[in-house]
Amino acid sequence: MTYVGIQTQIRRNNFNSVLLVIAFPLVLLGMVYAFLYFTSKQYDPQVVNDSFVNTMPFVLIGTTIWFVVAWFFHNSMIRMATGSKPLERMENKRVYNLVENLCISKGMKIPHIFVIEDDSLNAFASGINERTYSVSLSRGIIDKLEDDELEGVIAHELSHIRNRDVRLMIISIIFVGIFAFIAEMAFRSLRFGAFSRNKDGKSGGAVILIAIAISAVCYLIAILLRFGISRSREYMADAGAAEMTRKPYALANALRKIDQDPFIEAVQRRDVAQLFIENPQPEEKKFSLGNFFSTHPPIQKRIELLDQFA
């Protein structure tokens, strides 16, 4: 894949960010309207429209609160989900030297650096602005990679920051999380109370089944929206790292080593896992149906493209 340039990629990601901010609320409102329509006893469009207009402000307020909280506290949530902590400079001068040299070469502000105490090999970048940008590295990737390989991995993560990929993915994670929460609540309602008898007989179960069907469809749409914008970012970050270090072979070698052991035990959340340089999954899930909607392209394909740069 030809590298399209940093400014072009930034504009593309900024545009995609705006599309996400518009598309996800529209899907959410569509879900609410569909639920009101299919649960209406009269199927009168006017009645449904009135109910939708009355319900819409509460949906938008709730979504806005969710988004604002997640937006401002996402770094704390990600650190809790990954178990990362600040990397001590005095004990890890090698890492800091690599990061600072790369940042100076591109005129970047040095991001915060965190470590995940795990022997597996992985890394990710996060943050929404210069104050919150960070690069997290597993202990395994620090200890097991050669200097030029680790430099390539760090350059890959810095490219995500330069390209504004990290902000785009945070927005995606927040909105997909909303649909995941709604779908999960619908399934829990079905499991714990859908078929209990009440004054309306089994109508409660029917309503919950409708909610499950609609939320599942909208959740799938949300995943497809995320899928449509996320896979190319890894190719672009690989190309950006190759351009930054002038050593595409080093990142290719690093990816070969990462492919052998990318799974971080502490990371169980799939939404956070998509931030990593390789989406870490346990062996038994590597060939699951969910991989058809993977946020990462095949690592062997990425290695082949990097080898072409060399």
Tell me what you see in this structure.
The chain has about 300 residues and is mainly alpha-helical. The chain has one domain (about 5-310). Helices cover about 65% and strands about 5% of the residues. A four-stranded mixed β-sheet has the order 1-2-4-3, with helices on both faces. The longest helix is centred in the last third of the chain and has 43 residues, at about 205-245.
- Averaging pLDDT over every residue, what do you get? 81
**Biggest pleated sheet:** 4 strands, mixed
Placed side by side, the strands forming the largest sheet appear as 1-2-4-3
Spell out the helices and strands N to C. Answer: HHEHEEEHHHHHHH
- SS-derived structural category: mainly alpha
Q: How many β strands by DSSP?
A: 4
Annotation field: number of helices: 10
Helix content: 55-70%
Distance between the termini: 13 Å
Shape: elongated
Classify the beta-strand content into a percent band: 5-15%
Radius of gyration: 22 Å
- What's the structural domain tally? 1
Strand and helix layout:
Elements: H1 6-39, H2 45-82, E1 84-86, H3 93-106, E2 112-116, E3 123-126, E4 134-138, H4 139-144, H5 147-162, H6 165-193, H7 203-245, H8 248-260, H9 270-273, H10 299-309
Parallel strand pairs: 2-4
Antiparallel strand pairs: 1-2, 3-4
Helix pairs in contact: 1-2, 1-6, 1-7, 2-6, 3-5, 5-7, 5-8, 6-7, 7-10, 8-10
